[in-house]
Amino acid sequence: MHNQDNWVGLKCVIMVVPLPHVWKKTTREVQFYLTRLNCDARNLRQVIGLYWGMGNRLHWTLDVTFSEDACGIRTGHAPQNLALLL
Fold first, then answer.
1. Segment 28-51, tens digit of pLDDT
2. In the chain, where are the structural domains located?
């Protein structure tokens, strides 16, 4: 790895290839994770699942509480300005 001093403590590089089905289409994307955790596939699968589950729950909370998805502010600097206010 380039500049190995920047990667002290790195124990595992993980590549995940989820195959989500959206609107009857299968898409392919590749995700990489870097971790200091031991390379135990079952444990890392659980940790990654918890990470995404937390993000999904947070998104739902923000949408229900602040109606984020219904907000029409999506261009220019408006999204960042609105995020500062919330």
1. 788 898 988 888 888 888 888 887
2. 4-70
Q: Is the dihedral of CA 72, 69, 16, 12 positive or negative?
A: positive
- CB atoms near residue 18 (< 10 Å): 11
What is the CA 9 to chain-centroid distance, rounded?
22
pTM above 0.70, yes or no: no
Count of positions (residues) in the chain: 86
φ/ψ (deg, to 5) at 12? -155, 140
Helix (H) or strand (E) holding 57: helix 41-66
- How many Cβ atoms sit within 10 Å of the Cβ of residue 48? 16
